[in-house]
Amino acid sequence: METARNTLLAAWMEDQQLSARALADLVNREVGEITGRLGGLDDSSIRAWRSGRVRCPKSVQLRALENVSGKPSTDLGFVRRSRTPGNPPRQETPPVERRTLITAAVGAVVGAVGSPPAAAAAPRRIGMSDVARLQQRFTDIIAADHRHGGRTGIEHQARALAGDALRLQQQGAASQRVRASLYAAAAAFWSSAMWAAIDGRRFNDAREHLREAQNIASMSGDQAIQFRIWSHAGTMYRHMNRPGDADAANAVARNLGISRRDPMFASLGLARHGAIHAAAGDRRSTDRAFGQAQEALDRADAAAHRPVWLTAFYDRAEIHALALSAYLSLGDWETAESHGYRCLAELRPHMRRSLAITTTRLARAQLEQGEAERAVATAMQIPAEAAASHPRVTRMLAGFGQRLTDTAPHSPQTAVWRDYTARVTASAR
């Protein structure tokens, strides 16, 4: 008899952009948190779940899946094991004290290494090819972030990848260069988890990821990833309306040697500082920072080797995107609109999340200039998927709708916008 595909699990995995391997990693680590021993699932196990061949996994696996997904296992298409009448329920290993992902990943490996082996074996040699494989998986996460952004699935994948990088440190011999590269990779993955949390407005999670990323980055000696982490911290504090902390964090990034050596890093630091100056209400410093950011980018060697997280997003379009945000903060709607159009003109096709955010901000700049009809037409160009499911875009559009209602409660544009948002909300259900 042919089994029925588990469409509920498949739909959730697709929504969270989780591969079978990524979900196996997450569930295994959660099993480790519950029992003290990492789980043994692999991608074939998850494919068996998704295909419907396995409808009733072990209870500890279901519990781990519920913790990872935030959903009851029955909502993901599974049934729980029923125990035989008269037999007492099987006791699971008592849960250990909750630890961070890094401690769980490293501790599990150290425990395995400390167990007496059945036969002596030569230690595995870890090389740059292992680092390269991790970096390729990281590239996939970066691509998903630019398509969707803010989703917990991206955050979970990045955390799982950080655990993989740290676990490799314990699995064999390696040169100092390889070890430093693994620490840098793990810090980069934690930084991506942090960015996904910032984008999704999960600031408590973002601060936890910041601490983990900083600790690991300090062992890598890699200034590029240290720049990224402190620059992300500056953005996080700016979004939390703490411009003083944002200024201090971004200043750490800008004072690193890599900012003096590479004008592209200097440009990013200046552009983000321009947005921070605007949040503090300093128009003169805002103007100066964005002018200097453009000049620095003009000096940058486009052919120089740089990390994928930087080259995937930073260009003139990003400077205009940050300027759009900055001048909205200052209430200079006309200048903000100008930067919005310039950003859209130069935005690369894969930057779908940035397209939605920029379009939303452009609509707000138009609305504040009294152009309600044009503003609504602009806002309605945002893809329905982003409007309904991206936390940051959804929040910004809600603010746009409230402002439209406040300024023109009885206008035809307000009625059109209400009908549009109702359709988008209904389509997302």
Question: How would you describe what is shown here?
Answer:
- The structure is a single chain.
- This protein is mainly alpha-helical.
- Helix content is 71%, strand content 1%.
- The chain has 22 helices and two strands.
- It has helices spanning 7-15, 20-35, 43-51, 59-69, 101-114, 128-147, 152-169, 176-199, 203-220, 223-239, 243-254, 257-261, 263-279, 283-299, 308-311, 316-330, 333-346, 352-368, 372-379, 384-389, 391-407, 412-428, and strands spanning 124-125, 172-173.
- Strands 1-2 form a two-stranded parallel sheet.
- It is flat, with a radius of gyration of 24 Å.
Annotate the secondary structure layout.
Blueprint: H1 7-15, H2 20-35, H3 43-51, H4 59-69, H5 101-114, E1 124-125, H6 128-147, H7 152-169, E2 172-173, H8 176-199, H9 203-220, H10 223-239, H11 243-254, H12 257-261, H13 263-279, H14 283-299, H15 308-311, H16 316-330, H17 333-346, H18 352-368, H19 372-379, H20 384-389, H21 391-407, H22 412-428
Parallel strand pairs: 1-2
Helix pairs in contact: 2-3, 2-4, 2-7, 5-7, 6-7, 6-8, 7-8, 8-9, 8-10, 9-10, 10-11, 10-13, 11-13, 13-14, 13-16, 14-16, 16-17, 16-18, 17-18, 18-19, 18-21
Order of helices and strands: HHHHHEHHEHHHHHHHHHHHHHHH
Measure the end-to-end span: 33 Å
How does the helix and strand content classify structurally? mainly alpha
Strands of the biggest beta sheet: in what spatial order? 1-2
Task: Find the count of extended strands (DSSP E, 2+ residues).
Answer: 2
Radius of gyration: 24 Å
What does the largest sheet look like? 2 strands, parallel
Percent of sequence in beta strands? under 5%
| Mean pLDDT over the full residue set | 83
Question: What is the overall shape?
Answer: flat
What's the number of helices?
A: 22
Which percent bin holds the helix content?
over 70%
- Poorly predicted ranges: 83-121
